[in-house]
Design goal:
Elements: H1 2-20, E1 25-30, E2 37-46, E3 49-57, E4 84-91, E5 98-105, E6 110-119, E7 124-131, E8 134-142
Antiparallel strand pairs: 1-2, 1-8, 2-3, 3-4, 4-5, 5-6, 6-7, 7-8
Length: 144
Amino acid sequence: MFKAFAAMVCMAITAPAWAQMTPVGLWKSVDDKTGDPKSEIRITDQGGVLSGRVEKLLRAGADPAALCTACVDERKDQPMVGLEIIRGAKKAEGKDVWESGKILDPETGKSYTLRLTPTDSGSKLDVRGSIGPFGRTQTWVRVQ
């Protein structure tokens, strides 16, 4: 009986840490060049497939009614707030990495192959967008 109780206590204590090693949640993206916050993105899981939408624009002077004029697919001229910028990422087997999805840069309208890697016990998220061997990685910070 004591062993079962001890196991439940251990699971209750460590479960929050397990839950955080996922991209699911609310993240703050940061401008590569200036280091200023750009937006908040909410990543959700629908049946093991991740998607992410812009929830809030954070840049000083950003127009909350801005549209994605650079987008070239069905997102063209859609509002930036609510825009789906992450599509189709799935967890790699045996790793805390989500890949095989796409990420949209709404400022240029370009889509990139995506890799999401939680770091620092899930408080940060390495977001890598690439085309072939070329790409860049941003580090987003967990808001919740």
